[in-house]
């Protein structure tokens, strides 16, 4: 293994000994997955129209959900709050103490994995499980204490219609969930009933999306934050819109300059397939998904799908290209849908060795496939192409919000496993923003995407605090329950 100990400074000359048929195939894949500057701008132009359409009374593919979070935190918020975060993989229970120091907080938290069988089971089983986790948290961290009623911010990271900040009707499940009896219903009473059954002293005062929480939590510590994003299992963004630019809430007669947080849910961008550069593999993913025709943007950019795109390409090369790769090998494990996730691609892109020995080990360990050097190079290039396309398309959503709001410079706070763990994602997205927004070569980045504060924990607590403050001040617009 002498060769594997040599650090790989560049991949430029690594394909010199590549067979011509594989070189031709790589060229085809490059043409298929590359999104150039002109296409990026075309996507953004359509994106802006779709964002605007979502705010109209008629609506559109992008829900543009009104959250009833009216304004940013001041940094003066205080008190103890619970936060419950129901994500795509884990459930997290937090206690957040907003301190006397401006913009400071302490957080205690526990994480629980959501069992796979609950994701497609009955609703009662899911809410009972969540309530049980909350009870475990309180019993562990407040053993023997008599607790007064604790306000809770519930981070529910699925598309929900909110006529009030403390209620939310699930539009549709995403992220692989498909639980009966929840779509079209308000999820707050469901969870409240499960908590009350255990006699837990908790009041749900705000239902939030993780993206809105990311926006609020990051603005709490960085006032230049104007957009919150999630690049993870799913994709989404939130920003502040003026009430006067939201025709679908004009009957509330809010002052036109009232800031209203919008949870875009823009994973649904281009469900009509007007502008996104879909490949045959994207078409297969959509066709075979639980919800064909939905979440078009998400299926091309989110972590849930990147490994599956990669798998489908490799399988196509085996089955439909005269077994171009993995000849005379058992590829039965490769045939299992979603057997690979984005971490598989991350590991390939992070392989530091010239002979790609870590990638070779990864294929043997995960798929029982022995990959030769030319095949390793093809897999490496394919991972780069899929990862780069995801980052460049993801930048389109940010650029569209900046264009719509005429934001010249700001900080964008981003969370999610793809942003935090996928190599080069941030840099590739930044490069795409430069191309879209036409910054001069000598100019610094004017819109920068940075790691977010804990939106689903701290953000949920802050929104609970903001909601209680509003209720105490008598501003009850967008508040359903009597909170004080």
From TrEMBL:
Q: Which domain of life is it from?
A: Eukaryota
Q: Which residues form the Hexokinase C-terminal domain?
A: 226-466
What reaction does this enzyme carry out catalytically? a D-hexose + ATP = a D-hexose 6-phosphate + ADP + H(+); D-fructose + ATP = D-fructose 6-phosphate + ADP + H(+)
Mind naming one GO cellular-component term on file for this protein? cytosol
- Whether Transferase counts among this entry's keywords is yes
Question: Which Enzyme Commission number(s) are on file for it?
Answer: 2.7.1.-
Please give the InterPro entries that the UniProt record associates with this protein: ATPase_NBD, Hexokinase, Hexokinase_BS, Hexokinase_C, Hexokinase_N
In this chain the Hexokinase N-terminal domain maps to: 26-220
Q: In which pathway does it act?
A: Carbohydrate degradation; glycolysis; D-glyceraldehyde 3-phosphate and glycerone phosphate from D-glucose: step 1/4; Carbohydrate metabolism; hexose metabolism
A biological-process GO annotation: mannose metabolic process
Keyword ATP-binding recorded: yes
Q: Which UniProt keywords apply?
A: ATP-binding, Glycolysis, Kinase, Nucleotide-binding, Transferase
Q: Which GO terms describe its molecular function?
A: ATP binding; D-glucose binding; fructokinase activity; glucokinase activity; mannokinase activity
**Similarity section:** Belongs to the hexokinase family.
- Tell me what this protein is called: Phosphotransferase
Q: Which organism is it from?
A: Polytolypa hystricis (strain UAMH7299)
């Amino acid at each position: 293994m002498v060769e594997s100990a040599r650090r790989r400074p560049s991949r430029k000359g690594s394909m010199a000994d590549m067979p011509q048929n594989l070189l031709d195939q790589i060229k085809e894949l490059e043409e298929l997955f590359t999104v150039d500057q002109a296409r990026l701008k075309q996507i953004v132009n359509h994106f802006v129209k779709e964002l605007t359409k979502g705010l109209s009374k008629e609506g559109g593919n992008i829900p543009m959900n009104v959250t009833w979070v009216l304004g940013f935190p001041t940094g003066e918020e205080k008190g103890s709050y619970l936060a419950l975060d129901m994500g795509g993989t884990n459930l997290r229970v937090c206690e957040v103490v907003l301190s006397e120091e401006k913009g400071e907080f302490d957080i205690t938290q526990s994480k629980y994995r959501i069992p796979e069988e609950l994701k497609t089971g009955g609703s009662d089983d899911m809410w009972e499980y969540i309530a049980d986790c909350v009870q475990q948290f309180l019993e562990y961290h407040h053993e023997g204490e008599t607790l007064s009623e604790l306000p809770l911010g519930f981070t529910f990271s699925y598309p929900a219609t909110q006529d009030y900040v403390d209620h939310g009707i699930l539009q549709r499940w995403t992220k692989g969930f498909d639980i009966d009896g929840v779509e079209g219903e308000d999820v707050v009473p469901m969870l409240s009933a499960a908590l009350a059954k255990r006699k837990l002293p908790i009041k749900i005062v705000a239902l939030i999306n993780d993206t809105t929480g990311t926006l609020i939590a990051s603005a709490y510590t960085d006032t230049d934050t104007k957009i919150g994003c999630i690049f993870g299992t799913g994709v989404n963004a939130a920003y502040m819109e003026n009430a006067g630019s939201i025709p679908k809430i004009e009957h509330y007669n809010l002052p036109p300059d009232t800031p209203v947080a919008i949870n875009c849910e823009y994973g649904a961008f281009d469900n009509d397939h007007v502008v996104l550069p879909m490949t045959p593999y994207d078409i297969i993913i959509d066709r075979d998904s639980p919800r064909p025709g939905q979440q078009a943007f998400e299926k091309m950019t989110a972590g849930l799908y990147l490994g599956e795109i990669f798998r489908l390409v490799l399988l196509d090369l085996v089955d439909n290209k005269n077994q171009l790769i993995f000849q005379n090998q058992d590829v039965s494990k490769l045939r299992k849908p979603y057997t690979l996730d984005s971490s598989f691609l991350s590991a390939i892109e992070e392989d530091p060795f010239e002979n790609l020995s870590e990638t070779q080990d990864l294929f043997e360990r995960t798929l029982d496939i022995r990959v030769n050097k030319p095949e390793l190079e093809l897999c490496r290039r394919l991972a780069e192409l899929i990862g780069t396309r995801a980052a460049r398309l993801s930048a389109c959503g940010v650029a569209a919000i900046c264009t719509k709001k005429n934001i010249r410079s700001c900080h964008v706070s981003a969370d999610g496993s793809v942003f935090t763990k996928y190599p080069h994602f941030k840099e590739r997205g930044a490069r795409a923003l430069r191309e879209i927004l036409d910054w001069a070569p000598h100019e610094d980045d004017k819109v920068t995407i940075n790691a977010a504060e804990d939106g689903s924990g701290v953000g949920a607590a802050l929104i609970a605090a903001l909601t209680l403050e509003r209720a105490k001040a008598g501003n009850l617009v967008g508040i359903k329950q009597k909170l004080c």
